[in-house]
Amino acid sequence: MPRRTWLRTLGNTPRTPAARLVCFPHSGGSAGGFLPWADALPPGTHLLAAQYPGRADRLAEPPVPDVRAMSAALAGELLALAPLPSVLLGHSLGALVAFETALALQAAGHAPHRLCVSGCKAPAGAAGGGTHRAPDDELWSAVAGLGGVAPDLEDDHELRELLLPALRSDVTAHETYRPTSGRLHCPVDAFRGADDPLVGAADLAGWAAVTSGRLVTDVRPGGHFYVGGTADLAAAVTAVLPMAGTGV
Hints:
There is one protein chain. Strands 1-3-2-4-5-6-7 form a 7-stranded mixed sheet. It has 6 helices and 7 strands; from the N terminus they run E-E-E-H-E-H-E-H-H-E-H-E-H. 28% of the residues lie in helices and 15% in strands. The chain is globular. Strand 6 (188-193), helix 5 (201-205) and strand 7 form a beta-alpha-beta unit.
């Protein structure tokens, strides 16, 4: 049955979890994209991923083309969970949703332990572009050109028609994003693929403006969608997971 909630547990929930990792997918992505992480995390980690409307088990729901609306819903569900020290991880569009969710959690008195962002410019410069207004063929080709569509699926017209509404909504959310004012107090880790045509080194450095904490930048092999197949990114995030203390 479809579930209208925004969070999905991946893998088994530990009986006594010590920390929580919350993952936020890229445009057109779904919670299931983070399923391989379940085997890469240390015991005691509660792994959650956001399931945006309009895809997977929420396919019948209209997608939400607004980063701040998405983050408000996600923060509400996270605040309803048992408190755990948490790391939020988002890639591309997911980085913006993760940032806004972190701000909302902090405002509610449950700041995350850390924010990890990947493949995304800092909030002040993340918006802009007209890809969300492009014809279907052009939008699909742009995403495929970045590696966001498996090569053997690029010409699958039925799949394309199924995915395009959510993809266009997500790209709209990214390109029309207006960040909430305010700064985080937790550290931020910012990652990018070395060959990413959308995010450069200076773009990662811009994340320093969103926090009074420390910024760590890290460059990984690959392009914009390097995150899908890079096992050592999971290791890098594991290294900053809090396995004791208090938090979300």
